[in-house]
Sequence to fold (499 residues):
Amino acid sequence: MTAGPGAGPSTGEQPGATGWATGLGERRDNRRWHYKRSLASRVGLLTAMAVGITVAALSLGVYVTVRMQMQNSMDTSLLDRAEQAATASRVTEITAEVPAWALGAADVRIIFITENPRVRPRSLDRGPLLSLGQPELDVAAGQDAHSIRTITAEGGTRYRVVTVPTQPGNALVLAQSLESQERVLHKLGIVMLVMGGLGVLAAGLAGWAVARNGLRPVRRLTRATEEIARTEHLAPIEVEGNDEIARLSWSFNAMLAALAASRDRQRRLVADAGHELRTPLTSLRTNLDLLIQAEHGAGIPPEARAELLDDVRAQIEEMTNLIGDLVELARDEPLPHVVETVELTEVLHRAVARVRRRAPGVAFDVSADEWWLTGESSALERAVTNLLDNAAKWSPESGTVTVRLHEGVLTVADQGPGISAEDLPHVFDRFYRSKESRGMPGSGLGLSIVRQVAMRHSGTVDAAVNPGGGTLMTLRLPGAPWPPPGSAPVLETEEGRTA
Fold:
């Protein structure tokens, strides 16, 4: 086969791909250049373009309308003159050169078309030669009532020509130059072009001024954000008006308030954690100093030594629990968690066994129904253990902690002094400790972890005053009284769950 015109060597690329890519790159560069400009200049430029398009459309409409109106007026005038002249008596007998004004048409040229085919159309003036054609002959032959058209004469002068019949085989032609009309339209076009340009320039300046004045709150907001980023002083900015900029300022102030609250919580977390860590560390160092002094001195009785070692062990365990609580609260689930089908009754029994070893003087009355859910077994056990530890800590010596698990609702009731109405809304806050508990061991993080675990498992936890005295903690976890079919351990990551 023979290659067609323009065929070239094959390059493995589609035709026009390079041009398409080049055009796309140019459009991107144009958009990038557009967005490098300031917002005020862009608004002014867009305003000028919109006004320019509007002015151009209006100018074109006015120009076309005036041109058509002038042409219609000329056609009507020529047709009326021609018809009046054609009805005049003996008009076709005029053979001598008669001035055009004699027929009442001083501004037109007059031409006769006779029925003698050997006689050319005769003109009553000496103007440029007009080339008449078939439309005029058709009128003379009686085929058309009249004809109106534009003819270009020798020298390039354009005429509007009207032809009407006089007698069978004859016609009267009136031709008027369009030079004066075109001169008026040319002046009109220049005037409209100048006025349109001035209007576009004025619109651009007005748009720039309006944009600059309207964007003043945005510039003020920008300066405020830059000042906040530089000084880290989260003071709210002043809000003026009730427009979109004002709503943006309100939103920015709300964001600042949330950021300030978050920073305050972070500072309080660091301060409280430092305070809570300092207490067991101080006690631990004191006990270790006593043991060291006893080793270098006369020694201490075995009972006192055993008591010091027990205190050291307890303080180390307290620090371990505190550090674990801090890590649990601070990580906010950035690590993968093992999610599996959990039987809550087993978790409860393990937690009760652990707390019994810690508080041997407290009795636990446990009654639990079978309850299955999907979650983290270790986290659930930690939450239940914290509830039981809290109840055991506040229970009197030889007191009883009542634990009930029924249809996913775990209740833990102690026989302690209860929670005051002032402290009740804050018992699940981080590091919150009532006045009565500040002299007791603990960090104020246990119940916070309970709430976090409950929320992670789509559950809730709340505290109330027990009608029989003491405190009643209620943990609700969604699930079912039987295991789900085909349940298997699942590894959950930040991207999702994988079997």
